[in-house]
Each structure stands twice: as structure tokens, then as C-alpha cells.
Amino acid sequence: MVGDRLVGMLTDRDITIRGVARGLPPQGAKVREVMSTEVRYVYEDETIRDVAQVMGDLHVRRLPVLSRDKRLVGIVSLGDLALAKPTT
Questions:
Q1: How far apart are CA 79 and CA 58, in angstroms?
Q2: Cα–Cα distance for residue pair 35/15, rounded to 1 Å
Q3: pTM score above 0.90
Q4: Fewer CB in 10 Å around end: N or C, the chain?
Q5: Strand locations in 1-88 (E)
Q6: What is the Cα–Cα distance from 17 to 11, expressed in whole angstroms?
Q7: pLDDT in the model for residue 56
Q8: Can you give the pLDDT at residue 86?
Q9: Residue 62 is inside which H or E element, if any?
Q10: Distance CA 28, CA 55 (A)
Q11: How far is residue 67 from each of residues 4, 7, 25, 34, 63, measured CA to CA in Å?
Q12: How far apart are CA 82 and CA 25, in angstroms?
């Protein structure tokens, strides 16, 4: 985050594709050199069904969760969705 702004996200895939594949040294590479800068996110009040749809559409396994005033409140993963209890 820069100030209050989410500027990137780092995943194992980012490390592999942008770090290892480009030969960046793990002991010297900076997060900003390999992170994804086009951050997709969901809001904390969205339904699990909607979040699952977004994740499927984007082909991602995790997403940042923001409050409506765009503050980071968590990360949601496919595993979280699989463990979620259905609401009635």
C-alpha cells in the first residue's frame, strides 16, 4: 500500500513468472519488481457467490478484500470459499 492505496499483490505465480523466469536473485529482488500491479479486488459485503464468480472469471485463486471506503480488510482464497457455510 502506498498511503491508503493498494498498489500491488504478490503471489507464488508472480515470483515464478516475473522473478525466477527473469533470473532475478531471490536475496536481492524487490517485491515491486515482481508483484502484479493491476490489482483486482472484491468488497467485504459482496456475496460468496459473486466473489466465486469474479475469481472464476479472472482465473485467480485469491483476491484482496476491501471495505467500501477502499481500505484493505483481508484476502479471500478459493479455500476460504470452499469452507464457507452456505447462507439461507
A1: 16
A2: 8
A3: no
A4: C
A5: 42-43, 62-66, 72-77
A6: 10
A7: 94
A8: 67
A9: strand 62-66
A10: 32
A11: 12, 16, 36, 26, 13
A12: 35
pLDDT of residue 3: 66
Could you tell me which of 80, 3, 1 has the C-alpha nearest to residue 44? 80
2: its cell numbers: 502506498
Question: With contact defined as beta carbons under 8 Å apart, do 64 and 51 qualify?
Answer: no
CA gap 42, 16 in Å, rounded: 25
* Cross-strand partners of 62: 77
How far is it, in rounded angstroms, from Cα 81 to Cα 42?
Answer: 13
Q: pLDDT tens track of the chain, all 88 residues?
A: 456 778 899 988 888 888 888 888 878 889 899 998 999 999 999 999 999 999 999 999 999 999 999 889 999 999 998 888 766 5
CA atoms of 47 and 34, how far apart (whole Å): 31
